[in-house]
Design brief:
mainly alpha, 0% strand, extended
Length: 193
């Protein structure tokens, strides 16, 4: 009867954890690099996002068209075909007219950000007696300001808004993952040592 060596299993687990955190750190650095690129070149990043949305719409259209042939009655099939065709048309339009698609996405983004700011302010008035509720008002006002900047400078805001916001998101995501990966590495060293 063979007995397992617990120390060998523990060392193997530590090596695996170190390898995983190494890839996690590489991924974080890639996110940071992409975020910096998107902030430095916001118009190009916006075009990439517009093309990505175009491909997502085409993929969604194909899925709806496939779903139409799974049955469910004439009404269901007609609805799925109509939605699938609209998605395909929207996707092809976004791919063939990326600047116009970027402008449309920017306008939708402005509306969503403005609505979010209004909701935050309304929420503040409902919770104003609660601890920290003032931050809801601050967040709502800043969000309204950002949404207003995008809205009132549209369509010229199309050249920077999406790229900058995607860049900041990628940068923060990368930084967060980097800190988590480095923290996990320290924990592994502490556990092994």
């Amino acid at each position: 009867m063979a007995t397992a060596n617990p120390a060998r299993g523990f060392e193997s687990s530590l090596r695996t954890a170190k390898k995983i955190t190494g890839w996690y750190i590489v991924e974080a650095l890639l996110f940071i690099a992409l975020g910096v690129f998107a902030i430095v070149e916001p118009a190009l990043a916006g075009l990439v996002v517009a093309r990505f949305v175009g491909w997502l719409l085409i993929f969604g259209g194909v899925v709806h068209l496939i779903g139409a042939f799974k049955g469910g009655g004439l009404r269901h099939i007609s609805f799925q075909l109509l939605i699938g065709l609209l998605y395909l048309l929207g996707g092809f339009y976004a791919l063939t007219h990326p600047l116009l698609a970027m402008g449309t996405l920017t306008l939708v983004l402005a509306v969503v950000i403005l609505a979010g700011g209004i909701i935050e302010i309304v929420l503040y008035f409902e919770l104003r007696g609660a601890e920290g509720a003032g931050w809801l008002l601050v967040n709502g006002l800043i969000t309204l300001l950002l949404g207003g900047l995008i809205w009132f400078h549209w369509p010229s805001s199309s050249t920077w808004a999406i790229g900058i916001l995607v860049g900041v998101t990628l940068l923060v995501t990368g930084w967060t993952r980097l800190m988590l990966g480095l923290g996990a590495r320290r924990l592994i060293r502490h556990t092994a040592g």
